[in-house]
Amino acid sequence: MTSNDAVDFSLMSVEFQLDPTATFAAMREKCPVHHTSEPAPHYSLTREVDVAGALRAEETWSSKFGPGLAYGEPGTGVLVSSDPPVHTAERLAITRMFKPSAIDAMEDDIRSLVYGIVEGFKDRGRGDLVADLGMPVPLTIMCWLLGTPVEDIEKFRTWVLPMAEAVAYVGGRQANDTVINAYKSYGEYFGAHIRGRASAIEAGDDVPDDLLTRLLTVERDGTRLTFQQVMGFCQFLLVAGSATTTLLIGNVVKRLMEFPEQFELVRNDRSLIPNAIEESLRFDAPVHGLFRTNTCPVTVHGIDIPVDSKVLMMFGSANRDPDAWDRPDEFDITRDLTTLKRHAAFGVGIHYCLGAPLSRLEGAIALEAVLDHLPRIRPDGPPALVKAPVLKGFETLPVRWD
Ligand code: HEM
Fold it and tell me: Which residues of the chain have pLDDT under 50?
């Protein structure tokens, strides 16, 4: 029996989606370099030392074909689909928008937003934590960053998860109508929005000093990003910046309800909120993993990985690796915060999530508002898992409170 036969793994399988933790444990132990042809040929790395090591060796493990399973056209994507030196320049150009002082400056607005939303539904006594809170918070903030009217989150909320499903697709044929329509609607809406902003910049009109203006004006060797690159990056942001934070908010509240003694700890000591957020990210990484492509043949644990293979770096598994974490399968918000922050949920190395400080802040304020306004919050029926294969968390989370 080859080690590969020891574990039956596919991102698309129901068994994996229902219990990724068990699959990850089996892969780490029996088959740390797994190969499958489902839904298209790729390898997966699951041990922390391998995942972190590969992500830090970007000359070998390239992002040029993009973070999804499909091979993107090199040179057409931005940031998450580029390698140094292009990546370095792109990152430098937009880092300003995400640096801690810029995020701190948003704190009061984020707090008003979150408390306004929770105060709007708290008297109902029951609801869906994802639809009522987890979705609207990051989507509204995305509107602030991209300069779209906040009412349009009602449109965006129907596109985000179907677009996230496509990370594990290798061709349009796999896409169902919901996915196709989400892309079409995104293309129409953002095509017009980005063209409008670009024309205003061209005409010298006053435009908001937001991320979209930055993307449209940033220059690299005297050239600007193409329209297609800005379209692609905004689409990535909509999914990567909002769906993930939605999942974080659902995941942390779900685990605290599941482990009431942990809930009690944070109720009695609000200074544990950042630990609860970080432990949630470690325990339930919202993104199971993303892909790299190796620029030369590589052998890992005796398995030959041919050049240009798609290789899935499993952040979620690295976070549960007993060689990296003490009691990895125990949800414990009293872990040391500095150690906790070394989890891989935001990636590792040069592509480390630019939005990490923002999503940490959104998650922390959301949890604070839950503690303040939804007393004795508890499950109110079964939650529904997200359908996007690389994501972990809930599409609905019915809850009630006193
Ligand atoms: C809980 C929430 C979030 C999670 C779990 C998450 C996860 C990740 C991961 C795993 C990566 C690494 C990608 C790779 O290595 O290929 C990444 C990159 C990135 N994320 Fe996040 N993210 C979150 C929130 C956000 C937010 C709120 C934003 C922006 C508003 C954002 C923007 C980005 C960007 C721009 C990159 C690309 C960085 C680069 O390639 O240099 N993310 N994120």
Answer: 1-2
